[in-house]
Every structure is written in C-alpha cells, then in structure tokens.
C-alpha cells in the first residue's frame, strides 16, 4: 500500500477545501437556515407533526442527507475531473499507485468535506429545533456510508464526464430529483399508494429512512433493508470504479 | 542489462490508428538518448507507454528489469516524466506541487532534497508562488522539479524545449548535463535536431511508429555524414575543366569556387587525385574548406527513404 500517495492526494484535495473554507462553512449554514424558515416556520407551522415528531425536526435528517449527497458528488466529481481537464492526471497515471489508493485519496477527501457539511448542518439545525438522536452510533454509520458511497458515485461521474456540462448533468437530472422524491421532507406514508410503490424503487428513500430512524426511531422501510441498500449501493460503485481502472476507461488511452 | 528494454511494442488506438508498429529499443544506464522525429511520429506515445499512461496493444517494456504492466510499482518508481504540455495545477504553490509529487511516488518527505532540487532549477525564490503566477519558462522548470522529486533513475523529457527561448534552452541543456553527471538516464524527445546534436550520446530516429535507426551520435554522423569540400580558385573559370569531368563538381555562379561532395566513410575520398588534376589543369587554389553535414541532413535523408520504401 502506497500510504504516502494516499496522504498526498488527500492533502491536495483538502487544500482546495481549505482555500475556500469560509464559503464551505457559510453556504450550508445559510441554506439550512433558509430551509428552516421556509419549511420549518412558514409551511411547517401548518403541518404541525409527522408521526409524532414536529415537522421542523422531522426534516432535519432529510436536509442533512440532501446536502451531504450533493456535496459528496460535486466534490468528488470535480476532484477527479479537474486533473483530467487541465492535464495533470498524467502524474497520477504514471505514479506507482493502484486504483484503490487513488480512490482512497480522492473519495476520502470528498467524503471528509461532505461529512463536515453534514455536521455543520446538524449544528445549525440544533439552533432552530429540539433535536434528539436515539441511535447515535447508527446515525454516524449512516452518515459515513452516505458520504463515502456518494463520493464514489461522484468520482465515477467525474471520470465519465467529458466536459463541465456533463459534470453537472447527473447531479442535476438524476440526483436532485431522487433526493427530493426520496422522502427528505415528508414521510413516504403520506404519498398515495401508487406513488408509494414507485418510491420504493428510489434508492435514496432507503438512505433517508434509515438516517431518520437513527434520530427518531421512525422509518419508512425496515432498518436492515436500509443498511442493505446502502451497502449494496457502495458495492456497486466500488465495482464500477474497479472496472474503470482495470480497463482504463476514459482515463488511460 | 539495459535500464529500459522495449520489445516489439505495438500500440493501436481504438480508431484503428497504429501509433507504434513493433518498436524495439534498449536504453543503457546513464546515457542521454534523443528520440528524433517529426510531429506525430509516435514519440509521445512511446514515452506514455513506458510511463504507464498509455496501454500497449502488444509487446513488452521493462524498466530496471521490471515489467511496466505486471510490476508497475517497481517500474514506475524508477521513472520521472516531464510532459510536453504545461500540465500544472494553477492554484498550487511551487513547493506544494513538488511535495505532492514526491508523496505520490511513495517517498517520505525530504525537505532538504526538495530545497536542493528547487535551488538547482532556480525556483527556490519562487517556492511559495502560485504556479499561475509564473512565466512559461518557470512553469517548465516546475515540471522538471516535480519529475525529480522522487529521485528517479530514468528521466523522460518530452519536448523539453518546445516553445522555449534560446537562453532557457541552453539552461535546460545544462540541467540535463548535470543530471547525467548524477547518473540519471535521460531520454528526451525533440524535433529540434540541433538539440539532439548538442546533448545526446545516442540518437534514435522515429517516424510513423517505427524506429528507423538508433546509433551513437558521433558514429552516426561519421557513418552517414557527407562532407562538402569547397575549393576557392585564384582565377575564376567559365566552366569546370574537362580533366575533372569524372568528378561531380559544382561551379559557383561567379566561377570562383568548386564544390565537391564526398562520403567521409568511403575507402577513398578522391580528394588527393582531385587536387592533383586541378594543378595539372592549371587552376591555382587560393583556399580550401570543408563542412560536415548536420544531423538534420541525415534525418531528412532517412525519413525520405522510408517514404520511398512505403510508396514502392
């Protein structure tokens, strides 16, 4: 294992993050506050409670997931796309590193950033609503797995993308709708039966449900299914990355 | 054992274009090999294949005895690459970039070594500058510093002086000479023949994915080099004297000088007899000088011959 290489890539990626630490910190704080003003105060005051939890508190896990997923994807995809774009990828390709080391460096850094954002949102949310976390260990596990698996997905998108438009395409056209339709701001049980069936095909439902369970003990799907879903998703992403490096798809000519 | 062993390497791109058509080449330890070829000859593809950036279709490459595919870690650890394009992260500082490169190759931090590299390349004063603030020449040096950060035994320089001014080119040559003194094997690609002539020990000529020739620079120039003998006459003549008709002589327009082209490698150059015949014909010789053909002539000749063969 080339540990110095993993550390070098990780540090390099984190440096980009620290260069814009203020933006990294301020923007999630502002957007979370806005969500609370709109969903929590304006709309939430009419919804009152969802399954015994105040609406303001109910949306916190979904809000965190929304940001963590989009941040993980955008950080990881940009992280690997940019060296491709400016040509510095030659150095990675000619270095004595294997795919696992490259992935650990890039995905590790992207996941760290996403985790940081998640924690900032959690902290901000605590100012607006009373939060209880029933299963803190499960919460941390769900959060970490989500950071990792969506960073992996972002990494794949970054390798796949041939231009900046494509880089934005998947997050915009696929991920954001899936997250919004994934029960981030409502319980799946609030949907009409037909849509409930459709919702179960959305992988994000399982993540949000499991994450929400770790806060309130409420879930749309059994917790074991949620864990299986995210483990399966991570495995698929890992397999895809392994294949990419084995075949050199879109990186090695 | 050669430091780099290239055996029957072929590279066919997905579109069907064959960039390397069975290249074999040994690169000896401590030498400077110049790979000479026109644009699109396959120089960069060959280097990319050795460094692991391009996957070869067929054949094998070993660096320090390690196969570049199956033992890529051991092979790549020995190799440093200075790419042709200015591929640098614009927001990174010079020193951070060099540290990054060292780490990427699995080496522990060594600030003293990095300082030595940066000082040697006159980058020490710029170590905390962002790459985007540097001039083109400075960026080129940063690329070299990054390639040297992990103490490679073999250094590839892909067109190191393309688009570089004369002074910087001389600088670059000095740097290469210094590295050679440290025992680093250097392979550089260039389409400036002057460059190969100035710094290489051996010259390889590559065109259309084939190595046409690899030879000691000096012997290449003697073996294939032709010389031109120019004889200046005291009194101009109207035509080449008939006694000299079996020589292929060229008379200058003013009739004041005769030029004779001969092969330095031939058994007899015919110069002695020519001078005798000139004296017999009553021509007084005022001055004589010779000029050696440059590598460029050799190169152009080789490429032209390959084209003729392809056409035939």
Automatic annotation (TrEMBL), chain A:
Which Pfam families does the UniProt record give?
ABC2_membrane (PF01061)
Q: Which InterPro entries match?
A: ABC-2_transport_permease, ABC2_TM, ABC2_TM_bact-type, ABC_2_transport
Which residue ranges run through the membrane?
20-43, 55-82, 102-128, 140-161, 167-186, 221-245
One cellular-component annotation, GO: ATP-binding cassette (ABC) transporter complex
Main subcellular localisation: membrane
The UniProt entry lists membrane topology as: Multi-pass membrane protein
Family the UniProt entry places it in: Belongs to the ABC-2 integral membrane protein family.
Q: What's the name of the protein?
A: Transport permease protein
Question: Which species expresses this protein natively?
Answer: Mameliella alba
